[in-house]
Amino acid sequence: MNKLNFLLLFVMPISLSAQQKLEFIEEKIDFSINNDLFSVNGIYYFANNSEQAINRTILFPFSKNTDSTVFKRVYNLTYSKNLSFRELNKAIAFKIFILPKDTVKINIAYIQKAVKENVYILESTRHWGQALQKAHYSLTFAPSVQIDSLSLKPDTLINHVYHWTKTNFYPNENFKVWSK
Length: 180
Hints:
single chain, mainly beta, Immunoglobulin-like, eight-stranded mixed sheet, three-stranded antiparallel sheet, 14 strands, 11% helix
């Protein structure tokens, strides 16, 4: 049996059943853009509905549209702990620990060089196999930045800040901000 078949038949089902205990249920993300930087500051909610503690590695992808990503922090807000992470090609990997029947909030913040098409990866939510119960997004843009278009239609615009609120959100495209 070749390695690929072994992975598909044995490792993947174990990973998928283990993944079902850990749920990605909500995110609150503040984006900002100026002439130089596209910034992301997000809080991600993970729930452990099982009777056992979970210690899991999370893969967090970011856009391929930029050649410079600087991570400011990966922090467990629930347990007040900095999380170490490993940088991969256009992603980071970090471990989270969640007690049984608990929810953990993880803060991830990073900056990228602003480009014409600024992208935040939403499609990876589909790998969890369920919709986000809640998603809240805001995009603050400097007055000097002219927004050409957005991939998601905003709910409101107030003083250079777009807002989105979603429930049962199962994104089929990434969040994109095109600027001139």
